[in-house]
Design a protein that fits this description.
Layout (H helix, E strand, L loop, with lengths): L2 E10 L2 E11 L4 E5 L6 H8 L7 E6 L2 E2 L8 H4 L1 E4 L11 H7 L4 H5 L1 H11 L1 H5 L10 H13 L5 E5 L7 H16 L3 E5 L3 H7 L2 E6 L2 E6 L1 H4 L3 H6 L4
Parallel strand pairs: 3-8, 3-9, 6-7, 7-8
Antiparallel strand pairs: 1-2, 1-4, 4-5, 9-10
Length: 235
């Protein structure tokens, strides 16, 4: 298993945000985490990306215990995060933002090849590579954020609400891109508010409510559960 999270508990001071979460992602899988606003989805994915410590439980990636690994080293191990809200350097150009993603030494050594890969995935970014990223549309900025993460040559791409605030047609493009990324051999863990889309492309899914995983399984099985159909799909 590429990522194994067991009984992870995450807190903000004395307030527990995630209770004993266990999640697994295999190589080449898309795994979705769905749940209502405030369920703890971003806290969970930030912990898996090294941005937030955890109180107890374990996180192993590609056979390595990640507990003693400093946050800035998670990327070297093959984990890259596309954060909620994109968090670009808006006064820098598209290409400058992309090159920031080449943090791991192996990625720096192949920076030009990685850049070409991103431009082939997002041709509009090649056209606008010298434009300030802050002047791009929301969808284009999300492309830059995804491209920046891919520049690190990750084995696992963590994506936090990639469709947030985007027009429906751009959302469709985003999910098509996620499937292309998976076909290129990168596993994807997706936290997403668009439940229908997230379940449609996932191999496995988890439902997070009030900081606890209350259900998981194949999406086709989850959508048959009355609670999931009513609470998340409006059926």
């Amino acid at each position: 298993m590429l990522l194994e999270v067991r009984d992870l508990q995450v807190a903000y001071g004395d307030a527990t945000a995630i209770w004993n979460a266990s999640i697994a992602v295999a190589e080449g899988q898309i795994v979705s985490v769905i749940g209502p606003n405030g369920a703890g989805k971003s806290t969970l994915i930030n912990a898996m990306g090294g941005l937030h410590g955890w109180r107890s439980g374990s996180l192993h990636f590609n056979g390595t215990d990640m507990k003693p690994v400093p946050p800035h080293q998670f990327c070297n191990h093959g984990i890259a995060l596309v954060p909620e809200g994109r968090r670009l350097f808006t006064k820098m150009t598209v290409e400058e933002n992309l090159r920031i993603g080449c943090y791991p030494p192996a990625a720096r050594a192949q920076s030009e090849q990685n850049l070409e890969r991103v431009y082939s995935l997002f041709p509009i970014l090649r056209e606008r590579r010298l434009q300030l990223s802050g002047l791009m549309s929301g969808g284009q900025q999300q492309m830059v954020a995804i491209g920046r993460a891919l520049m690190a040559m990750p084995k696992l791409l963590l994506m936090d609400e990639p469709s947030l605030g985007l027009a429906p047609v751009i959302v469709d493009q985003m999910f098509e891109i996620i499937e292309v990324i998976r076909r290129e051999g990168v596993a994807v863990l997706l936290v997403e508010q668009n439940v229908g889309k997230a379940l449609a492309i996932a191999d496995h899914a988890y439902v997070l409510e009030h900081g606890r995983i209350v259900a998981d399984g194949k999406p086709a099985d989850l959508v048959q559960q009355p609670h999931i159909r009513e609470a998340y799909l409006g059926i």
